[in-house]
Amino acid sequence: MIGVLSGTLLDANWVTMIDWKEAPKEACWWAMNANGQAHWFLGPEDSHSKDSWCLRQVPAPSFGFSGDWKDSLTERPAN
């Protein structure tokens, strides 16, 4: 289960803020992968094959995230 509240990742032991001011303006999500690397996810865009969607990812700060990567997906808050 993803715990998200206004751009805040929630974990039983801690709370960390994603600083969306650091994100590219096209970034829709922030997440950590299983290797401990954080990324901004931009998109969606048409793929080159035109029969699917693709998301572009760019490196992002970890913001001190130390939880399970499966719980890290955070949608950019609406402003």
Could you characterize what this model shows?
The protein has 79 residues and is mainly β. The chain has strands at 4-5, 8-10, 15-17, 27-32, 38-46, 53-59, 74-75. The strands form 2 sheets. A 4-stranded antiparallel β-sheet has the order 6-5-4-7, with no helix packed on it. Strands 1-2-3 form a 3-stranded antiparallel β-sheet, with no helix packed on it. A hairpin with a 5-residue loop joins strand 4 and strand 5. The relative contact order is 0.31. The model is unreliable at 1-16 (pLDDT under 50).
Order of helices and strands: EEEEEEE
**Largest beta sheet: strand ordering:** 6-5-4-7
What percent of the residues sit in helical stretches (DSSP H or I)? Answer: under 10%
What is the strand content? 35-45%
Number of helices: 0
